[in-house]
């Protein structure tokens, strides 16, 4: 019985992980919602929000260096927090809930699949 429970838990974890694995091509389409304020790709420059090349895995509130982040994000970075998948997921769901005091006005993405897709897309810009 114990073995069945363990195998079921492993299978469920694998399915959950696979369900959250994003599609970069779909993420490119979802990213159009972000393009008014952010840029990615060769030659990307800061706009109202920072350019997002290399954001995945970077220290929160520090990348890119030439952008003035809110105090809320600077404090997270000072505490060593990074933009990993979990942090990006929470941020993209509700920036103001993730970092009260943030300058970002975007209300957030509501669909988990869109969030996973955008993160997968951003990962292509190392």
Automatic annotation (TrEMBL):
Name of this protein: Cytochrome c
Keyword set, alphabetical order: Electron transport, Heme, Iron, Metal-binding, Signal, Transport
Taxonomic lineage: Bacteria, Pseudomonadati, Pseudomonadota, Alphaproteobacteria, Hyphomicrobiales
Pfam family, one: Cytochrom_C
Gene3D superfamilies: Cytochrome c-like domain
Cytochrome c domain: residues covered: 22-126
Signal peptide: 1-21
GO molecular function: electron transfer activity; heme binding; metal ion binding
InterPro entries noted in UniProt: Cyt_c-like_dom, Cyt_c-like_dom_sf, Cyt_c_1A/1B
The organism's place on the tree of life at top rank: Bacteria
SUPFAM superfamilies: Cytochrome c
């Amino acid at each position: 019985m114990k073995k069945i429970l363990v195998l079921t838990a492993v299978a469920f974890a694998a399915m959950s992980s696979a369900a959250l694995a994003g599609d970069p091509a779909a993420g490119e389409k979802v990213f159009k919602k972000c393009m008014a304020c952010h840029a990615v790709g060769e030659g990307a420059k800061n706009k109202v929000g920072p350019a997002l090349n290399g954001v995945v895995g970077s220290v929160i509130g520090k990348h890119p260096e030439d952008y003035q982040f809110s105090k809320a994000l600077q404090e997270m970075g000072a505490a060593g927090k990074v933009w990993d998948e979990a942090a990006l997921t929470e941020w993209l769901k509700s920036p103001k809930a993730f970092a009260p005091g943030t300058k970002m006005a975007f209300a957030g993405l509501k669909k988990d699949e869109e969030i996973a897709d955008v993160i997968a897309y951003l990962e292509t810009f190392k």
